[in-house]
Amino acid sequence: MTPSYSLSSIREITPLSKEDCFYIADRQKTEFTYPIHSHSEFELNFIAHAAGVKRIVGDAIEVIGEYDLVLITGEDLEHVWEQHECRSQQIREITIQFSSELFFANLIAKNQFCTIRKMLEKARKGIAFPMDAVMKTYRLLDSLSGKQGFYAVLDFLTILYELSLFCSDARTLASSSFAKVSVRSDSRRVQKVQEYINAHYEEEIRLNELADLIKMTPVAFSRFFKLRTGEGLMDYVIAIRLGHATRLLVDSTMSISEICYACGFNNISNFNRIFKKRKGCSPKEFRENYWKKKLVV
To answer: Are residues 17 and 128 in the same domain?
Structure first.
């Protein structure tokens, strides 16, 4: 795998050819050395015996356990697995890369591919599968690298289908604003509110104004929004603002103070406190970690 990059991004040139449905690499390793990167291909990554490795997908930073299974379909979504506190000498990593063109439009739209379609959409922000999904698909993943031809494709499609049945239990990783993914509710009223927040996140957002927007009382609107989105209004607004802030920390040379106010936070102390609580590190540490991973190959 050959990285090609500038200061702002590392773009991986993957080995997947236009003539193949997917590319698979099955590695035994003792450390992770590849820098943070992105690529247009979709990627399913399975890691075993790697407790203590730090996984970065977009603005989501987590230390993984013994097993990790992640699907990423966002073509600009940066990701990396770094050594961190892992001491294992028996790490196994299975990486499967495949093109969005594997499912031509008419096929992915068919009812039989409904769950896979929803999974691929959700994975634009990266998703981490629960252990039940790992146990269900491990045998197929284990044997796939030794197969070729038509039946290998059938096994790969089976893996995707089996994983899609766990999609509702898979955790979304990156924030929508960092991953540049539009979040659209099934409710038109919630869509209207989301569009307003996305357009005005830099400004002060008042509960009364949002309630008026969809002709509801503030109390009724708060309950309605949480019921439809699964999170409180201010938690939602903060997540949107933090997503934009982390993107600016990664892609711009703006100062942390400038980013704070540009993303709608009213003071730097509040911004630092919320950022550390949600991301597990300070904005300064987040930026330094990202830039270090981009510059070291």
So the answer is: yes
Whether residues 100 and 9 fall in one domain? yes
**Which of 174, 203, 228 is the last residue before a domain boundary?**
174
pLDDT in tens, 23-80: 999 999 999 988 888 999 999 999 999 999 999 999 999 999 999 999 999 988 999 9
Helices (H) and strands (E) in the chain, counts: 12, 11
Alpha carbons 57 and 50: distance in angstroms, whole number: 17
Q: Which domain holds residue 48?
A: 2-174
Overall number of domains in the chain = 2
Task: Provide the whole-model pTM.
Answer: 0.85
CA–CA dist 239, 201 (Å, integer):
10
Q: What is the biggest distance separating any 2 CA atoms in the chain, rounded to whole angstroms?
A: 61
At 109, list the tokens. Answer: 């739209």
State how far the Cα of 202 lies from the Cα of 208, in Å rounded to an integer. Answer: 17
pLDDT of 232-280, one tens digit each? 999 999 999 999 999 999 989 999 999 999 999 999 999 999 999 999 9
